[in-house]
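Fresh eyes needed here. I'd like your take on this protein's tokenised backbone:
***
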Amino acid sequence: MENNKKILVVFYSRTGVTRKIAQELAAGLGADIEEIHDKKNRSGAMGYITASIDAVTRKCTEIENCVKKPSEYDLVIIGTPIWGSTMCSAVRTYLKLYKENIKTAGFLITYKMFGVPNVVRNMEMILDKKPVSVIDFKSGSTTKEQLAFKIENLKKELLT
């Protein structure tokens, strides 16, 4: 980016939707990227059910060690899908583990139906800070053009 801010996009994706958006966002911002890996198997129907239950009950999960250090970045954009009207367990764990190391945060939220305000509130509470930006994408209805538009707007926000 033109302003030389060092940006990290860190995300969790069970189905690949959040991963795809995070990759586009990181590429558009010239940011580093890191995927959060949940040690619990979340694949298939049973994985979906346990993921939803863990999210709704606000449980943390065990995640693999992250390689990138959020303290080395000016901005960390944290990406989560919405599960049961809240963030996924892997992102909840990441925020709790690294909140002291995140100087400035942005949120990337993917969803199918609703829950964005609730997720934003919960992420803010864990981090004890407001994000500089919240970008959300409704699964199946966000076009490539809309994504490019949101990325350009975010760049403008970050440069001011």
About this structure: The helical segments are 17-29, 44-56, 89-98, 116-127, 144-159. The CA atoms of residues 56 and 84 lie 6 Å apart.
